[in-house]
Structures are given as structure tokens and as C-alpha cells.
Amino acid sequence: SLAKEYLNNPELTEEKFISNPYQTVEQEKLGFNNRLYKTGDLVRLNRDNDLEYIGRRDFQVKIRGYRVELGEIESVLLSINEVEQVIVIVDDNDRLVAYYQSNEKIDESIIRDRLVESLPEYMVPSHVQYLDRFPLNNSGKIDRNKLPKIGLDKSDNYQGPKSELEVSLVNIVSDLLSLEKDTVSVNDDLFYLGLDSIKSIQLSNMIRSDMSTYIAVRDIFDYKTIRNISEKISKINKDKVIMKEEGLLSGEIPLSNIQKYFFHNIKTGNFKTPNIFNQQFTLKTKNNINIDKLTKALHQLVSLHDAFRINFKIKNSTDITQYYNTNLTDEINLKTILIF
User: Fold this and answer.
1) Is residue 78 pLDDT above 60, yes or no?
2) Cβ of 319: how many Cβ atoms within 10 Å?
3) Whole-prediction pTM
4) pLDDT band at residue 338 under the 50/70/90 scheme
5) Contacting residues for 306 by C-beta, under 8 A, at least 6 apart
6) How confident is the model at residue 99 (pLDDT cuts 50, 70, 90)?
7) Crossing angle of helices 70-78/108-118, nearest 10°?
8) Which residues pair with residue 322 across a beta bridge?
9) I need a labelling partner for 131 at 20 to 30 A (CA). Which of 17, 58, 232, 323 fits?
């Protein structure tokens, strides 16, 4: 991730990769360890001869594991003609927030489109705030500590949920993003509210868990608002076909890719002792167990879960058949169980 940012950029490479003053003569002869990368971290050497971290020299930050140069985001925003000055920070919630100064407030859709067009998703600020002027300190420099905090008040175009589905989605989103429920509009761009790629995965899982509906993470990125996601889920539920349980499954089952891989490695001799892939365990109990009740319980368990009845017929290394065994009595042999 580091090198590609300097590829075909000799000036930046020369600036960040400097000659190593600590290179030894032997290293110089061997031709390695001749350069250092300027990370931008400020450190000092303490009395124990250890490097002590102080802060950042520049404003390179780490967002969700990615190194982000805030100046790159600022450059994109400054490319909008109406924007006069820009500052991008990371707020207390680890979200990118952009502040811009201009003669008048710019339509957020214009700013959003420019950011999405020019930057990867993880570098797009969650919030863009208009300021008529930036706060200054006594030296006349911008005072970052006095920049207004991004509030969680209702947006100007707030619209509350109208359906039970939208109410459920508002509850899930507000819990996920730690927002007050009455501040989340069904028309809000969720990525402006603080959603990101990781939280999108969590949102997809929460929807599946709480609403028994699967919606892809890609759909969350595409539809963005609770209203649009709600309409997508409604369409999914409308098109959903509920399969009725038909009793015990029977017949052959095609081998999965991982099973084909497994048997191929047995055939080629890569897995010399395939039996080590078996899983077994022993249960030790304090009292004797009623074998009849245990047998009945295990038969019921096997009848409810078809995967427990999968057997293999192996004639040779290339002729392998996987099938459902419909004879439940063949599946459970409690004579091999030892009661301690």
C-alpha cells in the first residue's frame, strides 16, 4: 500500500525517502539499508535511549487500517471552484470530517459527487461542514480545537419512518452508529452519519439477524438511505420463495469444491494419513446415562439435520459418491459408547 503512492512520482519519492545517516560502512558496501522513509511521526530520544512518540509532524492518519493523507482530501475539495479554504480532521469518533469556507453554502450532492469520483471510499469524509470563516488563534493560524463539533441534531430534510420496516431499520442503524433514534432520517445518507465499510458488514448481519432478511453489503453502498434500503428489502421479501420442509432428503449430492480438493490430495498422496481429519470426542459423565433415552434423542437429532446422514461410497480414488442415508438405524450405533 505504501509503494504505489510513490510510483511514477520522483519528487515525492525524493522528499519522503532520504539517505540513511545510520548506514554502516559494511551495509554501504553490500548496497542495502541506504534509505529511510520519513513517516511524519515526531519522536524524541529519552534517557534510556528509547524513542518516545510525541505526535505527527504532518497530518497523515490511519483510518480502518489505511494510511490517509488529509492533504489529499483537502486538495480534492479545493478543486471545487466555490471552495476557498478547507480543513479535514479526524473527530473523536474516528470519522473524517471536512470543514470548508466559501461565499455561500454549496449543495452537498456536488461535494459528495466530487469526493466519490476522486477518492477511495475510506477517504471520503463522513461529514462536510460549511463555515463562513475559520476560527483563528492568537498567531492568526486556524485553531483546530475551536472547530465546531458535528452535532447529532435532526437534519434540515428530516423525515421519520413511515412503515414498520423503516422503523426497524432506524432502530438498527441508530444502535449501530450510537445515534438518537429521532435524529436518523430515512432520507439521510448513512455514510454521512458515520457508516463505513466495516459497519456496512455489521449492518448487513444485523438486518439478517433481526429481520430474517439478507441484504448484500454492495446494496447498502448502492442504496445508502434507509428509505431506499427498505424498498430493496421489500422487493427481496416479495420475490422470496419459501421452501417447505419435505421430510428426509435422499439421493446423491455433488461434491463441493473443498471435498474435491480433499479427495484429490488423498489421490495424489499429499494427505498421507487422511484419517487425521476425522473429528471425535469423548464425554465423561458423573452418573450413568439412560441409553434408551439417549438413543431416541440422537435419532431425533439426525432426523432433523440431514447433514448428519451424509455417507460416502468410495470404490477407488476417482469413483467417490456422496449421498443421504435414509436408514436412521445405520447412522447411530451406541454399542461403541462407553459409560464411565
Assistant:
1) yes
2) 8
3) 0.42
4) very low
5) 248, 249, 324
6) very high
7) 130
8) 312
9) 58
Helices (H) and strands (E) in the chain, counts: 11, 12
E strand intervals along the chain = 17-19, 35-37, 41-45, 51-56, 60-63, 66-69, 83-90, 96-102, 127-131, 251-252, 310-314, 320-324
Report the percentage of the chain scoring pLDDT > 90.
Answer: 9
> Sign of dihedral through CA atoms 73, 74, 80, 82?
positive
pLDDT computed for residue 173 by the predictor: 93
Instruction: List all residues 6 or more positions away from 203 whose beta carbon is below 8 Å from its beta carbon.
Output: 172, 173, 176, 190, 195, 220
Decide if pLDDT at 118 tops 80.
yes
For strand 127-131 and strand 96-102, is the pairing parallel, antiparallel, or unpaired? Answer: parallel
Q: How many residues does the chain have?
A: 340
Contact (CB, 8 A) for 205 and 172: no
DSSP 3-state assignment of 24? coil
